[in-house]
Amino acid sequence: MTVLDARTATGTAPAASLTAGKLARWVPWTLLLVSLAIAYAIFGVASIGEGLQHFNAVGATIVGAVIYMVLITVISVIAESRRKAIDRLMTALVSSAFLLALLPLVSLLWTVVANGLERFDAEFFTWTMRNVVGEGGGIVHAIWGTVLITLTATIISVPIGLMTSIYLVEYGRGPVAKAITFFVDVMTGIPSIVAGLFIYSVFALIIRPGISMGFMGALALAVLMTPVVVRGSEELLRIVPNELREASYALGVPKWLTVLKVVLPTSIAGIMTSVMLSIARVIGETAPLLLTAGFTMSLNTNIFDGQMMTLPVFAYNQYMNQGTSPDSAIARAWAAALTLILIVMVLNLLARLIAKVFAPKTSGR
């Protein structure tokens, strides 16, 4: 009986099996576990004479992933089809690449947390390093310096970068816009030490050589932040649909108000992400701040007078000048690095909250 005859006899089309020639869901996971077990067994046998401390877990995981790719591809070709086998192989390659890229980040976070928790106490966040030469001391002066300098740099760079991107997208045409784009691209790749030298040279010529203060550090960071804000905001403003602009113009709304009320709210979430990327780009800079903001062991909250300590400079200084208690200095350096990571995390959460609050509301919400 043909398909047409079956359809005529029953009145409906025969149900096609969607699972025919397809591996069960548990098969890939089982193959992965078997592959890892084989790889770990091989590496375990190879390291018996050297001890467990010489066991190469990363190498065993990589070999296990290779074994899994071979097994899943061969079995999929036999049980499914060549096309499905290639799909499973590419899925395994992409997943492996993701995990491989994730390993350094996880290792970094684990190392910083494991070494930084030793000095995460009340004294560390309430004391400075004034008159401290051995154990004890804290980073309250470095936290204040990092927050004030980064905040000042953000206040300077974000309006400049955002207005530049608005000009390039909404108004800029011809050689002027091309020149701005070219110089922004050049500024994106300049080394951070060059920004510090530039700001230091300007202030040395205007005021006096050897001057250092927090505002100089903020300007150096602003030089590094501005091109990142420009490029990120420009791309986000360009993807705003032109239909939104045209609808606003059709209602008689002027262009500046369209940008303010339509374009910016539509892309505010992405712009906040761009701002956070620029902050993350500069908050850990050490070289330009050593030249411009200097370093001090006391608390200074006036960015226009005197040197200021920041967290990256504090960590660098503690590592390079360990004093009479090297272990205490190293512990303070790790704790400062962990504090810096936590500050970046808090800023990211704050940026997401701001983007959620100011994002345009849809009718479905």
Structural summary, described in words:
It comes from Microbacterium pseudoresistens. It is found in: Cell membrane. Part of the binding-protein-dependent transport system for phosphate; probably responsible for the translocation of the substrate across the membrane. Helix content is 71%, strand content 0%. The protein is an all-alpha fold and 365 residues long. It folds into two domains: 20-119, no CATH class; 140-358, MetI-like fold. Helix 5 (140-171) packs across helix 13 (311-320). The protein is flat. The model is unreliable at 1-9 and 12-19 (pLDDT under 50).
Protein topology:
Blueprint: H1 3-10, H2 26-46, H3 57-79, H4 82-116, H5 140-171, H6 175-188, H7 192-206, H8 214-238, H9 242-250, H10 255-266, H11 268-282, H12 287-292, H13 311-320, H14 326-358
CATH structural class of the largest domain: Mainly Alpha
* Portion in strands: under 5%
Name the poorly predicted regions: 1-9, 12-19
Number of strands: 0
Please give the alpha-carbon distance between the first and last residues. 55 Å
Number of domains: 2
